[in-house]
Amino acid sequence: MLYEDQAAGFDERAAIPAEAVESIAASVAEIAGLRQGDTLLEIGAGTGMLSLPLLARPIRYIGFDRSPAMLAVFREKVEKARLRAKLLVADANDRWPANDGSVAAIFSARALHHVDVDHAADEIGRVLRPEGGWLILGMVRRPSESVKPAFRRQMGKLLEEEGYRGRSHDTHTEALFSALEAIGGERAEQPHVVARWTRRIAPLDSFTAWQGKKGLAGHDIPEEVKERVLGRLRVWAEKRHGDLEAPLEQEESFELEAIH
């Protein structure tokens, strides 16, 4: 999926507080040990929600994404902030837009699980510097029984009943890190929680967001299947929460996992 239809409202829908974004960028730079002139490659750069603080550092930034519309939003931010970035339309399941052995660190948030594990491992090995570099993956975390995780688990069950296999960030990350360890990679000891915040969100907001975009859960699916899944999910949600318009407090955090 290209997420072309989500570009204009993506930052609002997936909002992360500004202070959290600064903390994430600082942590990425610290973990990777970024120095002046180093190249950082971001996979699935999107609208640049997490990237602007990184661009302010004296590094070379290359970001790529399949969606021209998402990158157009990113470019506007870069121009407004008078920063510099190399932003490219490219598919991470093809050759990545970086020279062999040229990259000090690779960063990706909520994107790399869409890429074949073997291909990702091959490209990581190709673009990172011969002396070694870092792969750093970011993920928003929420308590398992809070609104979004519970809804996504139930949606995954309903999609499986329709014949669509779910995608798991955690399963993909474990498979990818294991593949990299097999060729000499070393994981950081444990994931780093680098920011925490609280949001007020109504359960209905999730349905509104899903209905307003193409596909569902990363799948390009027929509209009638989407409507059927969301209809069944809403029935389940109303039994669980009652009033779907009532805002609920939701804790969120941002976690980084890294391997060298």
Morphology call: globular
Gyration radius (Cα, Å) is: 19 Å
Largest sheet: 7 strands, mixed
Low-confidence stretches: none
End-to-end gap: 30 Å
Sheet-strand content, in percent, reads 15-25%
Mean pLDDT: 89
Into which percent range does the helicity of residues fall? 40-55%
Structural class per helix/strand content? alpha/beta
H and E order: HHEHEHEEHEHHEHHE
Distinct helical segment count:
9
Strand order of the largest sheet: 3-2-1-4-5-7-6
How would you describe the overall organization of this protein?
This protein is of the alpha/beta class. It contains nine helices and seven strands. It has helices at 10-13, 18-32, 52-55, 68-81, 117-127, 147-161, 169-181, 203-211, 223-241, and strands at 39-43, 60-65, 86-89, 105-109, 134-141, 192-201, 248-259. Strands 3-2-1-4-5-7-6 form a seven-stranded mixed sheet. Strand 1, helix 3 (52-55) and strand 2 form a beta-alpha-beta unit. Helix 5 (117-127) packs across helix 7, helix 6 (147-161) crosses helix 9 (223-241) and helix 8 (203-211) runs antiparallel to helix 9 (223-241). The protein starts with 9 loop residues before the first helix and ends with a strand. The mean pLDDT is 89.
